[in-house]
Amino acid sequence: DSGVTQTPKHLITATGQRVTLRCSPRSGDLSVYWYQQSLDQGLQFLIQYYNGEERAKGNILERFSAQQFPDLHSELNLSSLELGDSALYFCASSVGVGRVGFQETQYFGPGTRLLVL
Amino acid sequence: AQSVAQPEDQVNVAEGNPLTVKCTYSVSGNPYLFWYVQYPNRGLQFLLKYITGDNLVKGSYGFEAEFNKSQTSFHLKKPSALVSDSALYFCAVRGLNAGNMLTFGGGTRLMVKP
């Protein structure tokens, strides 16, 4: 158990809908990362938050957004869902950011499996 | 841009034999390299990382990895494979100039047969 929790574990929804994925980082971790794992794209970095502020963006669609709250949990919002958004969404956390952050290990949650029908 | 290549989609090895899962990388500056393992219906578990220092890194569950700067490789190894090692293995790199994001390889499925 990495200490990172994600809810829900599974999500089934229809095209055009909006869903929210939730992540709680390990105790003491200030950085939260979101990744998407799909069969065709592999594991891709979406976005990073550090202590409530967005720090880095990857291949995140405009239909997707995220935020990190004062209690450090994070939510990934996916809207106008398409069939191709079906994937496993992982949250990871690490202690910090910056020069020290490069050396840090990111610990991953169990993921949320999203199925868009 | 940084990238990782795992040239083998699948590696088959008999239990008790040594195993190697290959990884090569491309990054600007010094690389920070990681190996993760994913079991079915589970998240990614951290195995080991190379930051600096000794080129041979020891990690969890008896795994180790060898960093080779001239060949830009970071191969994962284990002297004696177990059936329970069967899983999906991911190599990842984080470059100094790319923020804290990890760039993952496509993954290698390790199958250890009794």
List the helices and strands and how they pair.
The complex is a heterodimer of chains A (117) and B (114).
Chain A: E1 5-7, E2 10-13, E3 19-24, E4 31-38, E5 42-50, E6 53-57, E7 64-68, E8 74-78, E9 87-94, H1 98-101, E10 107-108, E11 112-116
Parallel strand pairs in A: 2-11
Antiparallel strand pairs in A: 1-3, 3-8, 4-5, 4-9, 5-6, 7-8, 9-10, 9-11
Chain B: E1 3-5, E2 10-14, E3 19-21, E4 24-26, E5 31-38, E6 44-50, E7 56-58, E8 64-68, E9 73-78, E10 87-95, E11 103-104, E12 108-113
Parallel strand pairs in B: 2-12
Antiparallel strand pairs in B: 1-4, 3-9, 5-6, 5-10, 7-8, 8-9, 10-11, 10-12
Average pLDDT value of chain B?
93
The number of helical elements of chain B comes to 0
Beta-strand share of residues of chain A: over 45%
Radius of gyration of chain A equals 13 Å
Category from helices, strands and their pairing of chain A: mainly beta
Q: By helix and strand content of chain B, what is the structural category?
A: mainly beta
Provide an overview of this structure.
The complex is a heterodimer of chains A (117) and B (114). By secondary structure, chain A is mainly β. Helix content of chain A is 3%, strand content 51%. Chain A contains one helix and eleven strands; from the N terminus they run E-E-E-E-E-E-E-E-E-H-E-E. In chain A, a hairpin with a 2-residue loop joins strand 5 (42-50) and strand 6. The model of chain A has no long low-confidence stretch (mean pLDDT 92). Chain B is built from no helices and twelve strands. Chain B is an all-beta fold and 114 residues long. Chain B is 0% helix and 53% strand. Chain B starts with a strand and ends with a strand. In chain B, strands 2, 5, 6, 10, 11 and 12 form a six-stranded mixed sheet that branches. The model of chain B has no long low-confidence stretch (mean pLDDT 93). In chain B, strand 7 (56-58) and strand 8 form a beta hairpin. Classes of the chains: A mainly beta (117), B mainly beta (114). The interface between A and B is medium-sized, with 28 and 22 residues.
